[in-house]
């Protein structure tokens, strides 16, 4: 282990596919140890995981960190948003967690929007129009399809809440992750009694919302992790809010994250309320806001297309006029939860590489369409677009974003930004600093800037036209299966 200048902190990223842990020097931001362990996710109609495997993966990731984890003075958990974790009276899972990309609750989402005043009322109350990813729709689905599980539930948590509670023994969450549930009112920054009553969820089952900068608790006696008793535990937050902390972004800087899902977001000092539902009006982990647009289909969908074509993911070719909408898991932006993938414009001279490029174009198109809605009106449109996530270092991803955005693109050198953001939050507990200021001090956004190129308006217009013409087909895509 490298010698550290200051106290050590641990930042955790519990994502859809794995849990990662970083031990970080709070003074310099140097990563002195790291570990990672995988999760399993069910296939088929639903997307579910047993929360207990997240704890097992955390144990393994910290074991890989060695003695450095034992020396940590504070820890914070960043986690996948929206997931519904139901616990019994012993704190054990009633059933596997329903994950963010489980879209079985699309009918419940539509019904809840109608029953509680329509999209505009939802946006004004919670900051967002609930989609099938939101926790409130998953609870409604569970109540309808598994009432015995609902009756057995004595606590409702989000994924990061579950791990934090196992550390401290206390049920807590933060405003950033709570804002993605659909039952947290962004105007009052409290749980919304009307929504909870409507879906039959007792507010006593929900965790306490810890304020930014507040200590969520300390590591308790009975645990099997390498933390000392009394180690400080930060509030934690959702993955996107943690990544925003990890970058230390200021209002007006856009971020495009290329992971299993794709997201575009920016910090804002204005509470968002988009009645179209394109932009989710999330809170950030500091006290500001994090308007965000999300697609379900990003790197995983494009990699699947590459595999079907027998190509390396970088084997794209320019040219042609083929359009591929890679909605392999339904879609959230646009709101087409029942959609499947669609290919249009295929010709004899279309190459496999052009098909693969079309998949990249289709995945990026929706995110860039939401970019102007995410940014405040006075934001500088020449500010580089920060490209992060698993796909950010892929040349094909970088060039597609450059060509379709017409903006300069910056690729931060720092990896594991969710875990780094969690570490910055933990460091802020020790130093009294704003976690975003900690990340800026660590210079986490440092990286090469790719100059802007002329925007490919022709491709953007073609994809938009195909999407518009195919909307009726996409809306009924899964119903005939």
TrEMBL record:
EC class name: transferase
Residue span, Carbohydrate kinase FGGY N-terminal domain: 9-246
Keyword annotations from UniProtKB, A to Z: ATP-binding, Carbohydrate metabolism, Kinase, Nucleotide-binding, Transferase, Xylose metabolism
Family annotation (Pfam families): FGGY_C, FGGY_N
InterPro entries, A to Z: ATPase_NBD, Carb_kinase_FGGY, Carb_kinase_FGGY_CS, FGGY_C, FGGY_Carb_Kinase, FGGY_N, Xylulokinase
Active-site residues per Swiss-Prot or TrEMBL entry: 239 (proton acceptor)
Protein name as annotated: Xylulose kinase
Gene symbol of the encoding locus: xylB
């Amino acid at each position: 282990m490298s010698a550290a200048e200051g106290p050590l902190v641990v930042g955790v990223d519990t994502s859809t596919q794995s849990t990662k842990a970083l031990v970080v020097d709070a003074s310099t931001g140097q990563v002195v140890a790291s570990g990672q362990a995988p999760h399993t996710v069910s296939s088929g109609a639903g997307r579910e995981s047993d929360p207990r495997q997240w704890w097992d993966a955390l144990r393994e990731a910290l074991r890989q960190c060695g003695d450095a984890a034992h020396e940590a003075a504070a820890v914070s958990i960043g986690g996948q948003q929206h997931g519904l974790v139901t616990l019994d009276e012993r704190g054990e899972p009633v059933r596997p967690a329903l994950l963010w990309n489980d879209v079985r609750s699309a009918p419940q989402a539509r019904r809840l929007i109608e029953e509680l005043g329509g999209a505009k009322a939802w946006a004004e109350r919670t900051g967002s129009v609930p989609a099938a990813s939101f926790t409130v729709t998953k609870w409604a689905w569970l109540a309808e399809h598994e009432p015995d599980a609902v009756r057995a539930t004595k606590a409702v948590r989000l994924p990061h809440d579950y791990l934090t509670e196992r550390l401290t023994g206390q049920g807590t969450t933060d405003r950033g992750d709570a804002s993605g549930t659909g039952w947290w009112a962004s105007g009052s920054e409290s749980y919304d009694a009307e929504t909870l009553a409507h879906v039959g969820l007792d507010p006593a089952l929900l965790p306490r919302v810890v304020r930014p900068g507040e200590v969520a608790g300390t590591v308790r006696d009975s645990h099997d992790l390498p933390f000392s008793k009394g180690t400080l535990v930060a509030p934690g937050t959702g993955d996107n809010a943690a990544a925003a902390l990890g970058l230390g972004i200021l209002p007006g800087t856009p971020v495009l994250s290329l992971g299993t899902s794709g997201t575009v977001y920016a910090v804002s000092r204005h509470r968002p309320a988009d009645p179209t539902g394109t932009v989710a009006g999330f809170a950030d982990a500091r006290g500001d806001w994090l308007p965000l647009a999300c697609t379900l289909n990003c790197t995983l969908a494009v990699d699947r297309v590459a595999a079907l074509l027998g190509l390396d993911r970088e084997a794209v070719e320019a040219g042609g006029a083929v359009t591929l909408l890679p909605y392999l898991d339904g879609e959230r932006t646009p709101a087409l939860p029942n959609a499947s993938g669609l290919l249009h414009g295929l010709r004899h001279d279309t190459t496999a590489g052009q098909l693969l490029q079309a998949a990249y174009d289709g995945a990026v198109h929706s995110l860039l369409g939401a970019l102007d809605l995410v940014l405040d009106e006075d934001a500088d449109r020449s500010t580089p677009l920060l490209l992060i996530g698993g796909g950010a270092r892929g040349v094909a991803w970088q060039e597609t974003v450059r060509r379709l955005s017409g903006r300069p693109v910056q690729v931060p050198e720092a990896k594991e930004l969710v875990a780094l953001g969690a570490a910055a939050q933990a460091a802020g507990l020790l130093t009294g600093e704003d976690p975003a200021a900690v990340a800026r001090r660590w210079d986490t956004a440092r990286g090469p800037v790719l100059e802007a190129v002329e925007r490919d308006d022709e491709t953007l217009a073609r994809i938009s036209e195909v999407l518009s013409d195919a909307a009726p087909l996409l809306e009924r895509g899964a119903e005939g299966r």
